[in-house]
Amino acid sequence: MTMRFYERAALGTSCSFVVRLEDGGPGRYFDQMVDEFNQMIDELDLAASRFRLDSEVSRLAANDGVAMVVSGLLYDEISQALRASTITKGYLDPTLGQTISDLGYCKDFELLKAEVQDGVKMRVVMPSGYRSVVLDPGARSVKVPPGVLLDLGATAKPHLADRIRDSLLGTYEVDVLVNLGGDISCFSSDQANPWYINVTDDQSLNIDSPGEILGFSSGGVATSSIKKRSWSKSGALHHHIIDPYTGRSAVGEIEAVTVLAGSALDANIASTATIAMGSFGLAWLESTRLPAIVKLRDGSSKTLGSWPRRRKTQGASI
């Protein structure tokens, strides 16, 4: 059995997948897997990127509060975002697009890092709230208040990781792991041969970095952090996880959260909401009973649920 790996830059991050292939088996279809992977990424970017003027969410924001028929893909992603809002008591709010843009996160993060915004005045924009989004399943239309820009970042990318995993698994019957900027979804047919990942503070993506090695056969894992996507504006430091009840970056004692769940989507809903909730986040995460590790600002960490026992970092397969 061999492994094949593919990686590209997309969705403002690094996107990759790896498959295990039987010799002489579906390996001859690897190029088709790559094409399918790229197509699904490009379709989501065109539908849901708030950084593209030609995306569907940008056109929806410019539709003056009139219902707009959207693609099945975008309709599904908005539905998933509203589900996440309900689960998290409104803390994951898809109507935060203009709020986070006015805080400074108004373009791809690699471009944002190159800018100095300390002399730029900050404006706090309160979101209209997820209940202001109206879906009509019969017409497959979406209506938002005038000017409301949807931000589907907390759900669309991890959901895509799950969809790519399911698509490759269903079509080619291969063991697969999809990693979209840390939103990971995988399947292994052999419980004795799981996929391994390294949960580490080192952002170099080196598998040998000190950290927690996790082995899992099926499901999703996601990490949310206030460290990587942060910027300075108006003399203050901001990060991309917003408290919708203040319109500002969430404040709390948590620096990073990694969660295991049945899907990358549910893992990222839990990890992102934990930080967005601030002082309420840790208790809420405990109530979900999901396996998780929480790193606090003081450098300490806490494990929740049935978090796997610590392993050494050697011997990881990805």
List the helices and strands and how they pair.
Elements (H helix, E strand, L loop, with lengths): L1 E9 L2 E9 L8 H19 L7 H6 L6 E2 L2 H16 L9 H6 L6 H5 L20 E3 L4 E3 L12 H17 L2 E6 L2 E5 L7 E5 L12 E5 L1 E8 L4 E4 L2 E4 L2 E2 L4 E2 L4 E8 L2 H13 L4 H8 L3 E5 L4 E4 L14
Antiparallel strand pairs: 1-2, 2-6, 3-5, 4-5, 6-7, 7-10, 8-9, 10-15, 11-12, 13-14, 15-16, 16-17
Helix pairs in contact: 1-6, 6-7, 7-8
Task: Assign the structural class, choosing from mainly alpha, mainly beta, alpha/beta, alpha+beta, or little secondary structure.
Answer: alpha+beta
Stretches where pLDDT is under 50 for at least 5 consecutive residues are 312-318
> Considering DSSP H and I runs of 4 or more, what fraction of the residues is helical?
25-40%
Number of helical stretches of at least 4 residues: 8
What would the keywords be for this entry?
8 helices, alpha+beta, single chain, globular, 318 residues, 28% helix
What features would you describe in this structure?
- The strands form five sheets. Strands 1-2-6-7-10-15-16-17 form an eight-stranded antiparallel β-sheet, covered by helices on one side. A three-stranded antiparallel β-sheet has the order 3-5-4, with no helix packed on it.
- The chain contains eight helices and 17 strands.
- Helix 1 packs antiparallel against helix 6 and helix 7 (264-276) runs antiparallel to helix 8.
- The chain is globular.
- The model is unreliable at 312-318 (pLDDT under 50).
- A hairpin with a 4-residue loop joins strand 13 (242-243) and strand 14 (248-249).
- It has helices at residues 30-48, 56-61, 72-87, 97-102, 109-113, 156-172, 264-276, 281-288, and strands spanning 2-10, 13-21, 68-69, 134-136, 141-143, 175-180, 183-187, 195-199, 212-216, 218-225, 230-233, 236-239, 242-243, 248-249, 254-261, 292-296, 301-304.
- It is α+β, with helices and mostly antiparallel strands and 318 residues long.
